[in-house]
Amino acid sequence: MSNDTIKHIESQPDYEGKQDFTITVYAEDRVGLLNRISIIFSKRKINIDSLNTSPSEIAGIHRFTILINESHEVVRKLARQIEKQVEVLKVYFNTDSEVIWQELALYKVSTEEITEKVTVERLLRQYGATAVVIRKDYTVFSVTGHKEETDALVKALEPYELIEFVRSARVAIIKDSAGFHEKLKEFEADEPGEERIENEFLDKGDKIFTM
């Protein structure tokens, strides 16, 4: 990476002011849950900067990754509200320094510009871009990184006929975590249940889900 490449700087903890928080929700895959979670944010007039849903390491359990910029106290209250949803098993919230996160960005540029100007090729190498599609009229590149890095490449490509740009939602893994799967196994080993009831893990609170 050259000295010209922008580097991501993690935000410092600020329990009074606003900062980026990654909210991780483990929940059963049920129709309508995403809408109900979104309503919790909209009622409080809190903007969601990015939202990603995907299967988790546990069969039948989905993982929601939500990025917002708010104070610690507001995020704490949001997490408690989300956990009240019947399908939700557990909610975690972390600052940028507590997670490993990435975003995927795609860039569509003129193939003629790319092939004729060596400067553009150097820029793409500098930012670790990979060719996804190459056609006569355009080429699509992908870059994985932080928002500052993907935004910087947008500005660098603007003079070279940048046709289109899109960035994905954040995906993140909590640094100091043994994994949600391990927590469930520990609970089942300590207190095996005769029959599963809806949301049986929530009322176990700190005993099960402390990471």
Automatic annotation (TrEMBL):
Coiled-coil stretches, from where to where? Answer: none
CDD domains documented for this protein: ACT_AHAS
Question: What is the annotated quaternary arrangement, including any partners?
Answer: Dimer of large and small chains.
Q: What class of enzyme is it?
A: transferase
Q: Which Pfam families match?
A: ACT, ALS_ss_C
The pathway where this protein functions is: Amino-acid biosynthesis; L-isoleucine biosynthesis; L-isoleucine from 2-oxobutanoate: step 1/4; Amino-acid biosynthesis; L-valine biosynthesis; L-valine from pyruvate: step 1/4
Q: Which UniProt keywords apply?
A: Amino-acid biosynthesis, Branched-chain amino acid biosynthesis, Transferase
ACT domain location, by residue? 22-96
* Enzyme Commission number(s): 2.2.1.6
Q: Which reaction does it catalyse?
A: 2 pyruvate + H(+) = (2S)-2-acetolactate + CO2
| Protein's UniProt keywords contain Transferase | yes
Stated name of the protein? acetolactate synthase
Q: What organism is listed for this UniProt entry?
A: Pedobacter helvus
Protein family membership: Belongs to the acetolactate synthase small subunit family.
A GO molecular function held by the record: acetolactate synthase activity
Q: Does the keyword Lipid biosynthesis apply?
A: no
Gene3D superfamilies for the chain: 3.30.70.260, ACT-like. Chain A, domain 2
